[in-house]
Backbone:
């Protein structure tokens, strides 16, 4: 957020409404009305005095109405922009012409009641709609007693209760009498999968967030009993099933498959009545009931659609197609995030990158014409200056200070030698904290900064940017992680956590005394890409990059493009896949910027972001030709394939041609044969997935099953189709098809791993016996076809993982750099990821992911250069004896030997070095030091640790 | 009272400043464009700013 607030190329126009949009792609004019804040944003210092004086109470909507604020306020301390505002609907002056107490209170004279709404006209080439999601209708909530009983809360309210900046400062308490709840129930699918409130779809995120909220609540209070009432646990995302398992096994959270009938008052608490699958009823008492509310369309969706000139789907989300998931019906107007359909953060972030890629591809001739280049003040610290250290200790709201005694640590820091400035900070990552840091650096001529807060992984770049803004080299910064290392891991030992924080801060300061400015280095970039894999992901990525104006080479192992999609004939919504695929292949082949190498395989890759050189082996009949290709980035889209399980549900299957996969059934159904739709079919879900053979959920097979079941019913309405499943994971709009299948008589029968279907021989066929919990009976059938939903496995990721030094998960999918914030990047700079090689997912998600990976890959190509982290290794030529140990050990080929004055000397190739430090650790003469982690610095840290004062 | 037209070319408008809008804006600038990020409420962040910790990584949502 702060990053957006400080970019010179993003103007945040908040408190504003889009009124009109005219023009065409490449040339729109948008009219935006900015509502008055009644506070001059430039002058406001966000001191908060006005809120203290304002006499009027206002229900705090940021805290979901669980707390009270004032009409003049800021939603939360890290808000961007960090300016207070006045809510006109509650302000005494704006409503009744009285009061105005705040005006003289504000020392910066920022309050200005004369502000009027202003209209602005913006000339833009494209428009991206990302208005998110809205709230589910009241009636979905009131049916569970919401509004009547205070301790029935929504999951969003529950998030606020869990949050340290929330109404009870992070303590979960009942709203009614503030007692700590001992028993909490979650009700799933509130306002989702419910035609009663016109929301037939599944919101896709609530199962996972309920698990998260339950686990966090358990961390707050391990004694609390938590039960989740659900229809299907839809944890189909990457590694989400593992999270559910942890919730169950480690945290003891109970999962009950039942429909909740109602919630009524009972003694001091609440009584929850439910009906299980077999029709039996039960009830249990709870202190608090959390409603897992779904994501609805934004309330003003239709207004926005009118202004933007695009269509909505039947649920009022933006209407798009499987093949162009981010394009609205109005060209030049795109969509991303939850407004495209309910989705979680990783997917919203992926869509965001993708939409940025396609919009800028359309506008590529305008690139660079509107941007302002950011410049930094000259760096003014020379080496060898006496250290003047500034230390900030962050409260992180109460995330740190709830455990660690922050004032004590701050005072302690103040006593250390060379510390000339020290302070605590409520949220050191907030925008105004950055301003303060800059000011103090200047005021006290600081030349080293130590911040004790959270993880450098997420926040170091932010603070380093602040240093640069203040004219300091960004290496003159040291971050101490007292959140993860102290307040989190020692949550129950506040004193020890405080002592450890003091130790860590002392060590940080000791190191800071020895840190030196490190030179920034940049290397030029070869402006082209290598794409490994010519399936739908690889081809989509190639076209997206070509639209940006960058050439690429697609390497495909098979003798033709298309990959797995060649086996897909139609999608669940009924799209014609073969035609789409044919057009896609044609477009790729015709594009002059795309070179396609089929029957080709990557042999080796050397180099680093911006400067890779790869050898590709191409087989042409009997000849094998090797191509060497120079390129700046790599995009991995090697895909996957259907799994071939050896055993299904722990059993050897009888040999029979009546047992087929969904894919084979699909081919059969798409054919012309008269009897292609069998009269009786049993489908087995999770055959091989979810702990059977593969540990994970393959995400796509529930949709496939419903798709094929509907197709069978379409061709042969009399057919008996039985789907044996553990959980139907028809998330999102696929829920509609699932409902339709049930309406058409497809029978969905759940099984559990304790009571699995059994298979046996029956003549040429196969017999299935299973327990039907609805009928409470054991059933035996000999269907015409037994169809296996076999799941997906990644294609040869291990080979590539070794070649490109990119990690894979335990399930052999590639592991992205950060699941939530960098979902299409791999940890090695310059390598990007899309498609089944990342995780199983359906076609529309693959297309989006490929567009996103291509957009991210285009960034270094657009810049034309890459910055090298200055923390690379450095060889001191005088001490180096030329033994070459470092060269043999470096996993990244980042050290080479040179002859200098006839002596062998090692030298680092800065751009290849990943700063792992292996070389430095092995050099027999200590000739290698790591920038930012020199022996001197580390020794100083270790010595400082030894100095335990007591 | 419409103000003078801003930037003639090379700009994109993003409507909505939640995690999707903000990430779009950041990537647009990285790809060489100027961005107007239009947000209805007083601050950007959307729903994510209200969440405590978010799956799958459980770090803070800002
Ligand atoms: C209780 C709960 C818990 C969740 N927990 C998680 C989790 O742990 N992990 C996870 O990955 N996901 C979680 N989610 C889902 C997550 O919130 C969404 O994926 C994400 O917020 C979607 O981002 P967005 O930017 O599309 O929408 P939003 O966050 O809704 O942002 C939309 C923004 O657009 C603005 N806006 C709306 N209309 C207009 C307009 N007309 N003009 C201008 N601006 C407008 C809004 O004010 C808002 O700032 C959770 C959801 C809920 C409800
Ligand atoms: S099944 Fe879908 S709608 Fe129901 S709680 Fe789970 S994710 Fe939400
Ligand atoms: S059938 Fe496939 S998508 Fe459905 S739950 Fe099992 S593994 Fe997941």
Residues:
């Amino acid at each position: 957020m702060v990053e957006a607030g400080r970019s010179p190329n993003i103007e945040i126009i908040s408190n504003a409404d889009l009124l009109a949009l005219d023009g065409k792609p490449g040339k729109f004019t948008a009219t935006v009305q900015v509502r008055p804040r009644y506070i001059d944003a430039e002058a406001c210092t966000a001191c908060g005095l006005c809120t203290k004086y304002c006499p009027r109470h206002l229900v705090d909507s940021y805290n979901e109405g669980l707390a009270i604020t004032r009409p003049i306020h800021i939603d939360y301390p890290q808000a961007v922009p960090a300016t207070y505002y006045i809510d006109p609907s509650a302000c005494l002056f704006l409503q009744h012409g009285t009061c105005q107490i705040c005006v003289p209170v504000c020392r910066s004279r920022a309050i200005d009641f004369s502000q009027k709404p202003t209209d602005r006209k913006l000339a833009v080439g494209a428009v991206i709609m990302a208005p998110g999601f809205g709230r589910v209708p009241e009636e979905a909530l009131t049916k569970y007693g919401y509004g009547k009983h205070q301790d029935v809360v929504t999951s969003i309210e529950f998030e606020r209760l869990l949050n340290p900046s929330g109404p009870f400062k992070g303590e979960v308490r009942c709203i009614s009498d503030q007692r700590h709840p001992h028993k909490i129930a979650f009700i799933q699918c509130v306002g989702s999968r419910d035609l009663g409130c016109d929301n037939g779809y599944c919101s896709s995120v609530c199962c996972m967030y309920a698990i998260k909220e339950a686990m966090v609540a358990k961390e707050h209070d391990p004694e609390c009993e938590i039960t989740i009432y659900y229809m299907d646990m839809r944890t189909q995302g990457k590694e989400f099933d593992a999270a559910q398992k942890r919730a169950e096994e480690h945290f003891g959270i109970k999962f009950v498959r039942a429909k909740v009938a109602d919630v009524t008052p009972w003694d001091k608490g609440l009584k929850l009545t439910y009906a299980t699958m077999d029709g039996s009823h039960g009830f249990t008492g709870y202190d608090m009931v959390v409603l897992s509310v779904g994501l609805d369309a934004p309330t003003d969706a239709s207004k926005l659609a009118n202004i933007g000139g695009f269509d909505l789907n039947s649920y009022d989300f933006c209407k798009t197609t499987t093949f162009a998931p981010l394009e609205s019906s109005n060209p030049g107007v795109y969509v991303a995030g939850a407004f495209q359909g309910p989705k979680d953060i990783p997917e919203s972030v992926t869509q965001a990158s993708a939409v940025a890629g396609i919009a800028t591809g359309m506008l590529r001739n305008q690139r660079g014409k509107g941007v302002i280049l950011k410049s930094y003040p000259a760096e003014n610290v020379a080496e060898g200056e006496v250290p003047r250290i500034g230390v900030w200790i962050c409260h992180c709201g109460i995330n740190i200070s709830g455990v660690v005694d922050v004032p004590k640590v701050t005072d302690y820091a103040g006593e250390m030698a060379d510390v000339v400035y020290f302070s605590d900070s409520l949220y050191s990552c907030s925008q105004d904290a950055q301003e303060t840091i800059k000011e103090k650096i200047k005021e006290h001529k600081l030349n080293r900064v130590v911040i004790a807060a959270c993880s450098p992984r997420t926040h170091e770049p932010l603070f380093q940017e602040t240093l640069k803004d203040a004219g300091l080299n960004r290496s003159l910064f040291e971050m101490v992680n007292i959140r993860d290392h102290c307040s989190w891991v020692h949550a129950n030992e506040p004193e020890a956590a405080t002592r450890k924080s003091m130790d860590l801060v002392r060590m940080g300061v000791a190191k800071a005394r020895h840190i030196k400015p490190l030179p920034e280095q940049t290397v030029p970039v070869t402006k082209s890409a290598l794409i490994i894999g010519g399936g739908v992901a690889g081809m989509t990525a190639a076209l997206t990059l070509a639209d940006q104006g960058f050439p690429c080479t697609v390497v495909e192992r098979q003798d033709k493009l298309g990959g797995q999609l060649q086996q897909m004939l139609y999608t669940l919504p009924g799209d014609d896949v073969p035609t789409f695929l044919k057009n896609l292949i044609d477009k790729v082949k015709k594009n002059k910027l795309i070179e396609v190498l089929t029957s080709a395989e990557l042999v080796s890759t050397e180099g680093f972001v911006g400067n890779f050189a790869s050898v590709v082996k191409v087989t042409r009949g009997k000849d094998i030709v090797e191509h060497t290709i120079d390129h700046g980035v790599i995009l991995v889209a090697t895909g996957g394939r259907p799994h071939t399980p050896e055993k299904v549900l722990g059993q050897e299957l009888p040999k029979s041609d009546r047992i087929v996969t969904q894919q084979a059934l699909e081919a059969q159904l798409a054919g012309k044969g008269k009897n292609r739709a069998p009269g009786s079919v049993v489908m087995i879900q999770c055959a091989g997935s979810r702990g059977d053979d593969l540990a994970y959920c393959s995400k796509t097979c529930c949709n496939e099953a419903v798709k094929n079941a509907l197709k069978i019913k379409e061709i042969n309405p009399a057919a008996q189709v039985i789907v044996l499943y553990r959980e139907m994971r028809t998330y999102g709009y696929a829920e509609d098809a699932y409902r339709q299948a049930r309406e058409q008589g497809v029978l969905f029968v759940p099984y559990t791993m304790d009571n699995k279907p059994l298979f046996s021989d029956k003549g040429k066929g196969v017999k299935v016996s299973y327990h039907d919990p609805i009928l409470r009976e054991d059933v035996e059938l000999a269907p015409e076809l037994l169809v296996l939903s076999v799941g997906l496995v990644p294609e040869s990721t291990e080979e590539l993982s070794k070649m490109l030094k990119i990690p894979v998960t335990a399930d052999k999918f590639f592991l992205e750099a950060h699941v939530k914030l960098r979902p299409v990047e791999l940890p090695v700079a310059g390598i990007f990821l899309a498609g089944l090689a990342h995780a199983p997912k359906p076609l529309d998600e693959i297309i989006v992911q490929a567009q996103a990976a291509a957009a991210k890959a285009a960034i270094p190509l657009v810049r034309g250069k890459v910055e090298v982290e200055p923390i690379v290794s450095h060889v001191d030529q005088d001490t180096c004896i030329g033994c070459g140990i470092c060269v043999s050990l470096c996993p990244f080929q980042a050290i080479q030997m040179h002859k200098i004055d006839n002596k062998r000397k090692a030298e680092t190739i800065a751009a290849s070095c990943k700063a792992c430090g292996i070389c430095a650790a092995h050099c027999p003469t200590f000739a290698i030091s790591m920038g930012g982690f020199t022996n001197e610095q580390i020794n100083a840290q270790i010595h400082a640790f030894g100095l335990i004062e007591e | 009272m419409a103000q003078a037209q801003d930037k003639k070319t090379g700009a994109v408008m993003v409507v909505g400043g939640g995690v999707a809008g903000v990430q779009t804006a950041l990537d647009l600038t990285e790809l060489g464009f100027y961005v107007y990020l239009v947000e209805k409420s007083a601050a950007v962040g959307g729903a994510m700013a209200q969440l405590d910790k978010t799956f799958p990584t459980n770090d803070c949502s800002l």
Remarks:
- The longest helix of chain B spans residues 19-30.
- The first strand of chain B starts at residue 11 and ends at 15.
- Chain B touches chain A through 61 residues (CB under 8 Å).
- Confidence is low (pLDDT under 50) at residues 1-6 of chain B.
